[in-house]
Write the C-alpha cells for this entry.
Amino acid sequence: MGWNDPRWGDREEGRIEPHRRPGGEEGPPDLDEVWRTFNERLNALFGKGNGEGGGEGRDQRYRGGRRGWGGMLLLVGIVGVALWLLSGFYKVEANERGVVLRFGRYVETTEPGLRWRLPWPIETHEVVDLTGVRTVEVGYRGSERNKMLRESLMLTDDENIVSIMFAVQYVLRSPEDYLFRDRAPDESVKQVAESAMREIVGKSKMDFVLYEGREEIAARSQALMQQMLDRYQTGVQVVRVTLQNAQPPEQVQAAFDDAVKAGQDRERLRNEGEAYANAVIPRARGAAARLIEEAEGYRARVIAQAEGDIARFLQVYEQYRHAPSVMRDRLYVETMQQVLQRASKVVVDLEGGNPFLLLPMGEWLSRMGATGSGRGGGAETGTPPLGWGEGIPQEGTGAAGGTGAIGGGSSEGSNQGGRSLPRERGSRP
C-alpha cells in the first residue's frame, strides 16, 4: 500500500483492508483494486466521477486523493526549484575567466573557482580561455601545399609580385572586449593580419622581402597588427607572426631561379676577385716598397759617389795649380793605363832599331781569360800563329815588303786581323 493511500492506518471494525485477503491472510494487493483506486484518484483530481457507487466511502477517497496529489506536486516543485537553483553553479579553471550575462547584458567577470549565478533564463555565463594560443593562417590552410592565392599574392614597392604565407598566433587579453566589442573577432584578426602584411610588403623591395628582411617584416607587421587590433578594441594580444614561405609566383619561378643563380655567380666571382686582390695587392705594395728603398739607396750611393768625385777632383785641381806639368804627365799616364787595360792590342816600342817579336797577345789573353788555358794556338780559331821572324822588315824591302800582321798587310800602320803594327824606323823604299 502506498504511503499516500487514504486508507493507511484505517482499522475500523468490520472493514477489510485491500491488501488483506478474507480470513486475515496477508498477500500481494489485488491488481484490479489498485487500478480502480488509481482511476478514482485521477478522476477526483480533474473533478470527474465515474457515477458508480456513492456514499461516504467515495467522498473520503476523493478527499484523500486530492490531499495526496497536492503533496506530491509540492514535493516535485520543491525538487524542481532546487535543481533549477543548482544549475546556477559553474566552475572556472585557472587559465580561464567567466563572463556573466543577465538577460543578455554583461554583468561581471568571475575569477577561477566554483562560482554561482542566477539560473537560466535570468543569467547565463561564458567561460573564456585566456592562456590558450590561437592561430590564424593567411595564404594557406593546413599545409603550404594548400595555397590560397587570393590571400598570398602581394605587390612589392618595386612592382613585383611575391607569394607570402604566414601564420599569426595570439591570445586573449580582455574577455569582455573579445566577446562584446566584435561580432567575429577571429575573422577580424585574420583580416587585420592580411592588411598589415600587405602594407609592410608594399613598402619593401622584392629582394628584401624574399631574403634578408624576413625577420624585420614579421616584426613590423606584428607591431602594426597590434596597433590596429587595439584601435578596434578586440581584446586580442598578438604573440608571434611567422613567415612560413616567401617566394615568387609559380608562373615565374623558373626565370626567378635563373636570376638568383646569376646573382649567386656574381657574388662568387666578386668574392674570388676580392680574394685575388687581397693576395696580389700586399705583394705589389711590398714590391713597391722594396723598389722605393732600392731607389733611395741608389740615390744616396750616387750622391755620395758624386760628392767623393767632387772632393777628389778638387784635391787634384789644387795639386795641378802648384805643379801643372807634373800633374799633366801623371794624368796622361793614368788615362793611357786605363784605356790600354781594356784594349786587345800589344804595342812594342822598337826605338833603337832592335827587332821585335809580334805575337797574337790579344787572342792569347782573351783565350786565357775565357778558357783558363796557358797555351793557345791559331788552330783553334782558324788563324795561324806568327812564327819567329815574321813581320821583321828586311833590308832593301819597300813599304809593301814588310808584313806586319796575320793574313798579310802593309807596314804603314794598317789594321789587319784586329792588330796595329808600327812602322819600323829606317826602312825606306
Q: What stands out?
A: Residues 134-248 form a domain with the Tetrahydropterin Synthase; Chain A fold (CATH 3.30.479.30). Residues 9-19, 49-55, 373-429 have pLDDT under 50 and may be disordered.
